[in-house]
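Document type: protein sequence-to-structure record

Subject area: structural biology

Format: plain text, a pair of labelled lines:
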Amino acid sequence: MGNAHERFDCTVTEADKGIGKQIAAQLAAAGVSVYVGSRDPERGQQAVDEIGGRARLLVWARSPAGSPRASAANTARSAHDSLGRPT
């Protein structure tokens, strides 16, 4: 039987640096699929490469300040482009 954590997916925001990156690394080490949230694709990919395991990049889309609806729509589009259609 596999690790129970292998059944979980987790998104960690700002996981390309600092405490977010450390949290993502610990989750990945425990066998969790981790989506590394980053606004910077290059820095995010570097974090994914360093974390290894089941880490994948999720680029947060930038949107105009003060526009939560646009931000949510852009992030959903970005997630779809990065990860595919949700099941």
